[in-house]
Write a structure and sequence with these properties.
This protein has about 150 residues and is mainly beta. Helices cover about 5% and strands about 50% of the residues. It has one domain: Lipoxygenase-1, CATH 2.60.60.60. It has one helix at about 1-10; strands at about 25-30, 40-45, 60, 65, 70-75, 85-90, 95-105, 110-120, 120-130, 135-145. The chain has a 6-stranded antiparallel sheet, with no helix packed on it. Strand 3 (about 60) and strand 4 (about 65) form a beta hairpin.
Length: about 150
């Protein structure tokens, strides 16, 4: 009985509770070599434990507000024009964020992809990859403010 009570009290101790830290999130994404036959998908999201991200701006894309959505995305058509690099920045600090990356080079020339994730100014992910025709890459990343 004493062991059980000790387990309950230690499991609920304040030291084990997550810190409610918040930080600005920034993602820099560059794609070169994609054409309309390929599939490119990037999705960024951010939020707070209290859901306060809903109903107010969350992201700026290349300096322009993305409205009141907690997510923002890019597709292949975003990279077939003149703009090859996009910078997403949160408009205020958040508890957590995520990045979804999906690249499918169905045919043609190689596609070079780079993406960097920064949380509170610290680089958490910095990837530079090239995908040949026939290659596919899918990965999800999660970030928590420290």
């Amino acid at each position: 009985m004493i062991a059980m009570a000790g387990a309950v009290f230690s499991a609920c101790s304040k030291d084990d509770d997550p810190v409610d830290a918040k930080a600005n999130m920034k993602f820099t994404i560059t794609v070169n070599g994609a054409d309309s036959n390929d599939q490119i998908d990037f999705l960024v999201s951010a939020g707070n434990h209290d859901a306060s991200q809903y109903g107010s701006p969350v992201w700026k894309k290349n300096g322009t507000s993305e409205g009141n959505s907690n997510t923002s995305s890019l597709g292949v058509n975003d990279f077939t024009g003149n703009t090859k690099t996009y910078v997403f920045e949160t408009v205020k600090p958040f508890n957590f964020s995520s990045l979804h990356v999906a690249v499918s080079n169905f045919d043609g020339a190689p596609i070079s992809v780079s993406y960097k994730a920064e949380v509170g100014g610290t680089i958490e992910t910095d990837e530079n990859k090239t995908y040949a025709a026939g290659q596919t890459f899918i990965k999800d990343y999660s970030y928590v403010a420290k």
